[in-house]
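Look at one record.

>
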Amino acid sequence: MHELPPLPADLEDPAALAAFVEGLPSPGDVAARSRALGVAVGAAQDVALPTAADVDTAIARVDLTTLKATDTPARVTALCARARRPDPDDPSCPPVAAVCVHADLVAPAVAALEGSGLPVASVAGAFPHGRSPREVKVAEVAAAVAAGASEVDVVVDRGALAEQRWADVVADLRALVEAAGEAKVKVILEHAELADLGALSTAAHLALLAGADVVKTSTGTVEPGATREAVLVLCEAVAAHERATGRRAGVKPAGGIRETGEALAYLAIARAVLGDDAADRLRLGASSLLDDLVAVRRAAR
């Protein structure tokens, strides 16, 4: 695990942020460690038989998601019913962690989940590309929270990352975090559009400095989505940030997660880096994964 360089005293100071980034592990170091540990932990999980307890844990960490252009209130309502009771034939099956929808469908999701205790998450801030004026992104985040979202998934400015405009990256995310108020903010880094795993590590550290509660691999609209190496990088960034600041954050693999084995590999990686309580800090962004988890759970019981 790496330790952070001194934290910048002024998050609006480009020179201080540049010095912070310069002190982060090199791209080569990040890549070597992430590939070695990500493959090793994931491979060990691949040969392990899934236990009912781990499958239940994975179900309980799913952000059940629908982000289609054709989504409707009726579709969202049906998804919320599935979220409450993933296995209609087995009431002992745990509910998922949250339901994630477009910002204009937060209200019907909140109504459908009333009394369940399940939060509604909304993508916002010009998802999935983030290419809108900051005030527009801020307004969308605020609107989603006003409609009842208690979590928002926003996207980092990949153009600013590519040009190493670190102060712009942080300022943009801080504005979205502020607009979210008490809502949990998950920052999507879209690692497939970044140069390498070192760039992903830098993006994760900047997002955490800006106040992200969770760092997330992907929007699910660009390939590849979640990978073991990317999840390892995010877990290590979260662990280093906690050691330096005392603030706990989480990790959300998302994009292309369809099989139980892959979900459990991410759980194993999180536990290896974040400790035994890692499951509480993990979310799994998925739309079709739940079907496989329920099928495996039925077979394992």
Summary: Strands lie at 62-65, 98-101, 120-123, 151-155, 184-188, 214-216, 250-252, 284-286. The radius of gyration is 18 Å. The mean pLDDT is 93. The longest strand covers residues 151-155.
